Amino acid sequence: xxMTMTSTDTIVADYLDTLRAELATVPEAVxxxxxxxxxxxxxxxxxxxxxxxxxxxxxxxxxxGPPAAIAAAAREGQPVRPMAAPGLVEYLVFAALVVGPFVxxxxxxxxxxxxxxxxxxxxxxxxxxxxxxxLLPLVVTAAVGAAAALADVYKAVWVLGIVGLGGITVxxxxxxxxxxxxxxxxxxxxxxxxx
Amino acid sequence: MTALRKGxxxxxxxxxxxxxxxxxxxxxxxxxxxxxxEISEGTLYPLxxxxxxxxxxxxxxxxxxxxPPRRYYALSDRGGAAxxxxxxxxxxxxxxxxxxxxTRESR
Lengths: 195, 107
Fold this sequence. Notes:
Number of helices of chain A: 9
Structural class of chain A: mainly alpha
Mean pLDDT of chain B: 88
Structural class of chain B: alpha+beta
Mean pLDDT of chain A: 85
Distance between the termini of chain A: 37 Å
Radius of gyration of chain A: 26 Å
Radius of gyration of chain B: 16 Å
Shape of chain A: elongated
Strand content of chain A: under 5%
Largest interface: A-B, 25 and 23 residues
Number of helices of chain B: 4
Oligomer: heterodimer
Low-confidence stretches of chain A: none
């Protein structure tokens, strides 16, 4: 008994989650009203069942129809939520990652990575990538520099100069390019930044 | 055809409420069962919330013997007037369309 309760609850929760996601571009007041109405319908229809089975609950949802169709009906005649545009934070990220290394090396690109972490426009994976591209050159430079210094101090200066300057400027640049491409694609697809 | 169906749909809701209030689930089931309307139950809720906002229907919560309280829909005075206007226009519209269709068929 408890098992069926739990599984039907999950089916209903999944359905409502999908509907909530589909309603993302509908004005919030309207979206909330539709969600309340549909939740109410499901609760009422479930209470009307003589015995609750998984098939019966699936039938209730099937009759309600696909969440996308409900969202489309809610969107009709409604102003679409204005598309959010990237703001100051995102532009600062690009500036800090691309130009930053030439102005204040290390510090500005790190600041760019910090700002990127606060932006809603990028996923966690993309933020991690930006951090890696910013910090990895520093780690590699330090390691190679230390190893070279042990062998030959004069050579160490050269190695540090080439590996360090190269990595410290190219790393953040690669991060900026990837972040830019992802942001652009997200806007083209009309995706909103995540909440 | 879809536009025609959509336009008529809200008056079908009002017409179903003419004889008395109805519980939400019962109302959308009755509408989705109407032949030719071809709508799923869920897509009616955005319409119902629009009718509420426009004051064409009133809603009232009632306790139910089993389960959560239920929202009942009733025709408001404004809704009744809108339904009356539509009924008159619809009959004229339907007769005109029928006449045209029949003329074409008989040729």
